Amino acid sequence: MEYGIRTLIPVLFVIAFALKTKRTLEPLIFGTLLTYVITSAARIPSEGVYALSHIATDWMDAFFRVATDYSHQWVFLVCALFGSLITLLGESHGTLGFTRALGKLCRGPRSTMMVTWIMGILIFVDDYLNIMTLSTCMKKLTDQRRVPREALSYIIDSTGAPVCAILPFSTWAIFFSGLFFTQPGIAELGYGTAIETFYHVIPFAFYAIAAVIIVPLFIVGVVPKLGRMRTAYRRLQETGKVYSPESAPLNEEDESEFQTQGSLMDFILPVGVLIILAIISGELFLAVVAAIAVCFVLYIPRGKMSFSRFCDLAMHGFCNMIPTVAIIFFAFVMQEAMTDIGIADYIITLVQPHVNAVIFPLVTFLVVAILNFSTGSVWGIPAIVAPILLPLAESIGTNLLLVMGAIVSGATLGSHACFYSDATVLTSSCCKIENMDHALSQIPYALCASGISALGYLVCGALL
What is the pTM of this model? Predict the structure, then answer.
């Protein structure tokens, strides 16, 4: 069934509700319910009042599809187990040892942010790994160097998905190379294997490249403080607070911890095992479990903590991630609801009659970005639209590498800028900042990267 313009109502409602309340979870819950109100109401002419019973049943069906999906369960458990690892690292004071070691390089706000950016590029295997490791490493150090949490979260989020999208040895590269290579005409380009073909796509992932480059320009002041970021810096100057009053409940730890001695080994060994095993095995769940096991072997025999204390802390950190997991869960339910109401087909059908070979890469970037921003579905939307957009691009003579780059860029923009995408929620949670503070403070920079990307796709569409 087609719902026409009503397809867009849930997304617009969620965005407006979130901006008004500065909340994330509640707008998502109501947005999913509203979707099924619309789909059920459309059945009234054929089924009568009985159609309204589908509101509850369809919503529950989407709810349990998410709850029972293996890939979604993987995300929930990885996030929760990272909470356990972060809590254990904090209790061992290993992060403080790492902070002191990096402190020799980080002498002021700018150098501290630049180190954060460089580390974000180096931890390129997976955006989750990047976000969680980097926030654990740098949060206390940036606090000490008087860097607003909004700036920290912006840098981390901008070196998560964007870096993974433009480096060939990441989970993003594996996903997109496999997705593109199965489409008609891609293998015939003659670039070799799926990953070798993706190498040629990377230079056209304009949004990811722009997002990464804008960060150091922001740090050195070439790109000015804009919008909520400017407000954050003004707050820091006037009150000395690195986070907003709304974020205060998330930061109730004892600040005397800064004076506690910590061993660098207590941080380096677990995190080193985490990163190395993630690279070797390609399985982040296994890597984080192994890192927790290393903490167990490292801390208990040395008397850093008792067995009971270790278990209590692991469970406490696990539970601390429940609010984050809840938002990600309902973001996935929102994806299911958007699929059920047919938003991808509606928008693609809307724009198809108005495209030609020159503007098609630009339209692809905008369509994928809008759909990703609307649904929070970073990989789901590309999987849906690639089989539609790539054959269409081939039929009208558009450069296929450019279109694939536009799809990657649109997905990266969705992950980076959507306020209820898993990456955005995870970044704000790990940086202990209210989610909308993070999302709104980085939007101006995401828009700058979007503008550069749009211009790039328009120019390259005309030239290539």
Answer: 0.76
Kindly tell me if the per-residue pLDDT of 254 is higher than 60. no
Query: What per-residue confidence (pLDDT) applies to 69?
Result: 87
Task: Determine the Cα–Cα distance for residues 86 and 452; give it in Å rounded to an integer.
Answer: 36
- In this predicted model, what pLDDT tens digit does every residue of 144-187 receive, in sequence order? 889 999 999 999 999 888 988 888 767 788 778 877 887 778 88
Residues in Cβ contact with 127 at an 8 Å cutoff, skipping those fewer than 6 apart:
160, 161, 163, 164, 171, 172, 415, 423
Kindly state the average pLDDT of the residues 203-207.
Answer: 95
Q: Are 445 and 218 in contact (CB under 8 A)?
A: yes
Confidence of residue 276 (pLDDT cuts 50, 70, 90): confident
Coil vs helix vs strand at 236: helix
Q: Assess contact for 428 and 139: CB atoms under 8 A.
A: no
CB-based burial, 233-246: b 16+ in 10 Å, e otherwise: bebbeeeeebbbee
Q: Which of 447, 454, 425 is nearest to 156 (CA)?
A: 425
- What 8-state DSSP symbol labels residue 167? S
Q: Is 227 exposed, middle or buried (0-12, 13-18, 19+ CB in 10 A)?
A: middle
- Using a 10 angstrom Cβ sphere, with 0-12 exposed, 13-18 middle and 19 or more buried, the burial of residue 226 is middle
Specify the amino acid at residue 130. Answer: N
Q: Answer for the pair 274, 290: CB distance below 8 angstroms, yes or no.
A: yes
In the numeric block, which tokens belong to residue 438? 């993070």
